[in-house]
Write a structure and sequence with these properties.
alpha+beta; two-stranded antiparallel ribbon; 27% helix; 6 helices
């Protein structure tokens, strides 16, 4: 029996077709085909071409545009994270003060004291037995904002964005309402703790601001040196008149905050709000309140008028 075999004809145009296919798929030159038709035919793709200069420039331009868009977003995210840390620190300090209230008949730890009961309160002083941060350390367990060698501790007393966080001897980033810790005060005497400010952000550049353009000592001075009781250790915004006249409606004993000159320049006013930072977080500042809650807001929203504000006690 004879078995017939047949071969499939191969088109003479096949190499040209494969060449067009190779070019269609992006090869620089045609694919190499074996010399023999049928068995043994080889298909070797050509190397792909490199980027042209124009293509490289386009890619670089796209990367630059994306960087310009994303970098500010990353910076805002970092600022928000630092703000959240500062708010958390203020919250913990406020809760420590509330625990202090419970242990000491609802009184507040003191940052200031009046020399004679009439003159404006002055800083308690670093070495005082009842020094404010020392009084709260039983609840916070982190020590003070700095030690008496001048080294700052970078603990709960600091805002991570504070430009003064490495300033020698500085106590921290948060300034109290002077009517709360700068005067004799009990929690029960505050008309509305939930709407009365306890603390806020201290202004940057504290060295020049508090020492009238002076500077801190290069080496730790002796315990009797006036520096330890200077305005550098005033941990409060002091919203009263700088006077011993007890008849003044904004004398410190009244618990009434004098209108800030930045908002009410045409009336009797004071510059106490200059000690508050309102530029660090997009024109806003941070606040803790006497009931323990914290928030972010504009200073002008906390002082609406002499009879409607978050700084008065009564």
């Amino acid at each position: 029996m004879q078995i017939r075999t047949s071969t499939i004809p191969t088109s003479a145009s096949e190499p040209k077709t494969r060449s067009r296919l190779s070019q269609h798929h992006g090869f620089a030159t045609c694919a190499s085909l074996g010399s023999s038709r049928g068995k043994g035919r080889a298909f070797t793709p050509c190397k792909s071409r490199g980027f042209t200069l124009i293509e490289l420039l386009v890619v670089i331009a796209i990367i630059a545009i994306l960087a310009a868009i994303l970098f500010p977003v990353f910076a805002q995210a970092r600022a928000k994270a630092r703000q959240a840390t500062a708010l958390s620190n203020m919250k913990q300090i406020a809760l420590a003060i509330l625990m202090y209230n419970q242990d000491y008949d609802e009184t507040f730890p003191r940052t200031m004291v009046s020399p004679d009961g009439k003159l404006p309160p002055e800083p308690v002083g670093w070495y005082s037995v009842n020094e404010y941060q020392q009084a709260l350390n039983a609840y916070i367990k982190m020590g003070r904002g700095s030690d008496n060698t001048g080294k700052t501790q970078q603990n709960i007393w600091w805002d991570p964005s504070d430009p003064d966080r490495n300033l020698k001897y500085l106590w921290g980033s948060f300034a109290d309402n002077g009517y709360i810790t700068g005067c004799p005060r009990t929690l029960a005497s505050i008309a509305s703790p939930a709407s009365t400010i306890l603390s806020t952000l201290r202004v940057g550049g504290w060295e020049k601001f508090s020492l009238n353009g002076g500077s801190v000592p290069s080496a730790p001075p002796g315990q009797d040196d006036p520096f330890w009781r200077s305005g550098f250790f005033d941990m409060c915004a002091d919203p009263w008149v700088d006077s011993g006249d007890t008849n003044d409606p904004f004398h410190w004993s009244t618990g009434k905050a004098i209108p800030p000159c930045s908002l009410f320049p045409q009336t009797e006013c004071g510059g106490w709000d200059e000690a508050i930072d309102n530029t660090r977080y997009n024109g806003k500042t941070l606040y803790s309140y006497c009931d323990g809650h914290v928030k972010v807001g504009d200073f002008k929203q906390t002082y609406r008028s002499a009879t409607d504000n978050d700084w008065d006690i009564f």
